[in-house]
Amino acid sequence: MEEKELDKQDDLENTDSQEVVSEEKALEEESPQEDAVSDENEAQDAEPNEKKGKKKSLLGKEKKPNKLQEKVDELEDRVKRQMAEFDNFRKRSEKEKSAMFETGAKSVIEKILPVVDNFERGLAGLSEEEMKEPFAEGMNMVYKQLIAELEKLEVKPIEAVGCEFNPELHNAVMQVASEEYESGIIAQELQKGYTYRDSVVRHSMVAVVE
Question: Going by C-beta distance under 8 Å and a sequence separation of 6 or more, which residues neighbour residue 143?
């Protein structure tokens, strides 16, 4: 009887030891799974943080190009304005130069016109026989050359006799009676007028029919 009881105790001890071993194995098997789960949880927790970091970095990258683009647009606008101002300045300069040239040319032409008048008066006072003399012929040649040069400079005489009076072109100094022309028509030219490039250099001095 004592031996049987000892055998039963040995069997109980063996079963207890086996149960302990099996529990230790189960704990060992569960621990890697728990570790894996914890690793997965940590990885999942890290992913949102990484995404947030990426979003922040992307937002930061988006802001920088926007600032750069604004700066580029500002510089482009400034350059366009400066180019427009320079173009306007160039146009104004060209107009001023042209106006100065016109003024200078008119001033020179006005000084030459009295010389032309004197040539015409001198030649008009000569008879046909005197016009055949070498001196008169030379004077006439100089006069024709002077008129030709003025025409090259676009200086033209204003038409007067037989034309209707135009205050923009003619200067009426007297009125006359005429059977040939109607009232308001120029009957006589006392001093020839000239234009330079469609602008009046000197008005014609005329007599108008009453």
Answer: 116, 119, 120, 123
Distance CA 167, CA 103 (A): 22
Q: Tell me the domain boundaries of the chain.
A: 155-210
Predicted confidence (pLDDT) at residue 11 exceeds the cutoff of 80: no
> CA nearest 193: which of 179, 207, 203?
203
Distance CA 165, CA 119 (A): 26
pLDDT in tens, 169-201: 999 999 998 888 999 999 999 999 999 988 899
Rounded CA gap, 43 and 80, in Å?
55
Strand partners, 188: 207
31-43 pLDDT, tens per residue?
444 454 455 555 5
Please list, in sequence order, all residues whose beta carbon lies within 8 angstroms of the beta carbon of residue 205, skipping any fewer than 6 positions away: 170, 171, 173, 189, 190, 191, 193
Q: How far apart are CA 194 and CA 91, in angstroms?
A: 29
How far separated are the first and last CA of the chain, in Å rounded?
Answer: 177
pTM: 0.56
Residues 36 and 44: their CA atoms lie apart, in Å, by 12
What top-level class would CATH report for the domain 155-210? mainly beta
List phi, psi (to 5°) of 39: -65, -40
